[in-house]
Specification:
- The chain is an alpha/beta fold.
- It contains nine helices and nine strands.
- The strands form two sheets. The protein has a six-stranded parallel sheet, sandwiched between helices.
- Helix 6 links the parallel strand 6 and strand 7.
- The longest helix is centred in the C-terminal third of the chain and has 17 residues.
Length: 212
């Protein structure tokens, strides 16, 4: 199965990529299980915060192969090694660096670079990207996703807008043609309040299920 097929398979269960910025390693396993119970099958922990790689390892241990787990804010080849050593399978970047896309493929990771323009998007696909993180989504719009779909149909590109997406607007992005949405604080509590994470995750999952 190709990298994009792996990602499509997981997003097909729920079109959400959980972006767990600020997740502490000691809260990672329980947070992962709560998100899993809500139906989420793609999770990444940004590596530019303390304990990022440790949280990736804890998530992987808690949810296993049923979830595509990895690291985000990937900037260096060392970051790719950290994800692979932690047992992660996903490498999410805030930008496009073809060397990182190729490096991720070389160590068996699923690369998802960040893009903002069609030129970056096609360059990322040509480099071997499994999906495209449209970032920051706050500065884009669902109409832009719909326009991109005219030249990047769903079978050619997995599009995941990320940034500023919550339960109120996620459906608009999906209706416009997004393959999934990247979601952070609207989905979990970074402070470790598990009941709040349960509430947020279930509310978001309900909103996704009601989306057109």
């Amino acid at each position: 199965m190709s990298d994009d097929q792996i990602l499509r398979q997981h997003l097909g269960k729920m079109p959400v990529m959980a972006m767990l910025r600020g997740l502490a390693p000691e809260h990672a396993a329980e947070t992962g299980r709560l998100l899993f119970d809500a139906g989420i099958r793609v999770m990444e922990v940004p590596l530019n915060g303390p304990g990022g790689a440790e949280s990736v390892a804890a998530l992987t241990g808690a949810v296993g192969d049923d979830v595509l787990v990895g690291g985000g804010t990937v900037r260096t080849l060392d970051d790719l090694s950290a994800i692979a050593n932690a047992g992660g399978r996903l490498a999410v970047m805030p930008h496009l660096d073809a060397a990182l896309v190729i490096g991720a493929l070389d160590v068996g990771l699923v690369p998802v670079p960040g893009v903002f323009t069609p030129s970056e998007a096609f360059a990322a696909l040509d480099a071997g990207a499994a999906a495209l993180k449209l970032f920051p989504a706050q500065a884009l719009s669902p109409d832009i996703v719909a326009a991109w779909r005219a030249v990047m149909p769903p079978e050619d590109a997995v599009l995941i807008p990320s940034g500023g997406i919550d339960a109120a607007n996620a459906g608009d992005w999906l209706a416009a043609g997004a393959s999934g949405v990247g979601v952070g604080n609207a989905l979990f509590d970074a402070g470790g309040d598990m009941e709040e994470t349960r509430r947020k995750a279930n509310a978001f999952a309900d909103a996704i299920k009601r989306a057109p």
